[in-house]
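Sorry to interrupt, but I need a hand with the structure work. Can you supply me with one protein entry, sequence and fold together? No commentary is needed, just the two lines. Leave the record below and I will have a look.
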Amino acid sequence: MEKQDGCYLPKTLQQTAFKLDQADLLSEFRQQFYLPEESIYLDGNSLGLLSKPAERAVLSMLDSWRQYAINGWSQGRHPWFQLSEELSRELANWVGADKENVIATGSTTVNLHQLLATFYQPTSQRYKIVATSLDFPSDIYAIQSHLRLHGLEAKDALVLVQSHDGLTVREEDITLAMTDDVSLVLLPSVFYRSGQYLSMPQLAQAARQRGILIGFDLCHSIGIMPHELQSWDVDFAFWCHYKYLNAGPGSVAGLYVHPRHHHRLPGLAGWFGSDKEVQFDMLHDFTPAQGAGRFQIGTPHVLSLAPLLGSLEIFQQAGIQAIRSKSLQLTQFLIDLAETYLSPYGFQIGNPREPERRGGHVCLIHPEAIRICKAMKQVGVIPDYRAPDVVRLAPVPLYTSFTDVLEAVERIIQVMENKSYEAFEKQREVIA
């Protein structure tokens, strides 16, 4: 591709991006984030950027520790003892549930272990778990461990619905796997590689009609698209807060449990799942909290909860509908650019094209993906690599502009034209 006026892309596209940025209702939030200097950050589906409100919330929490010491559990602006419940009131809005059905607690996989320990109760008639061949590995590891705890083998009790193209899975294939011997279905809302969104309402209805419990991993959908877990009749869900919700590396995660299951004792009981009124009675008889709070296990990591306080302030102002609308615009803009200007270099689009089937990131497939990602970083574009051949690009509505997307594609073309990726080994770093 030849350059014109120093650029590979037509100048008219700069005007298009500028107009889109001028009309962007969320552009004001960009200044609330710490953007990497001279870089275009497109890895927010792996780790969201630090915001100024999140930073203030952490500093405020440190100050409460300094000022109140042990009394911080009951004093200050955000007493620690009720902090998880306080955050849950806000989080409920982002998953479409009442506050009693949500709790900020644990980590993603710990919460999944808790939910499997609670809901997976196999019988001789119903003992199988349905997942897919494209699920995030940690979810599969957790499932396999619970099968072993029940004396079952994955080859007999784990049904992995296969992909027809290596990138996506058809809802009808998942439904066909919901046979009479299935106890539980566990699925991602959005696949971590291709960005395909599964129809949660459709699948939850299918499970309910068959008397099967169904849960979802929301890690790649929460904070980027609306959810209505309660009205969709989902049994349980879990998620992280460090991707689109920008709560920081290793931040405390969250879980949801439908109110019809609030009578269940947690499979893994711990003292922070106690009714708050009696928790410090120190009795050996467990009195669980009334709602999803009963599924907490240990003492909350207060300093890892703090950034979420600040981050949710931004989300409350922005609104999830506006975030979803801009996300679809950004990903469509990127897909259109990639299809026209990157496909000549061997890139293929791995996303579903229909907006309603797409999450928040774009999946580009290339046999040299691993080396291309390294070269992209060298020219100031921060992508995400997923084996064996995927470049993930996540334009995040709160801090990514349309001009950013355009410039990122310009720099990718530069990498391909100069073949600068050939200078790198075809081997991933320890962290991809």
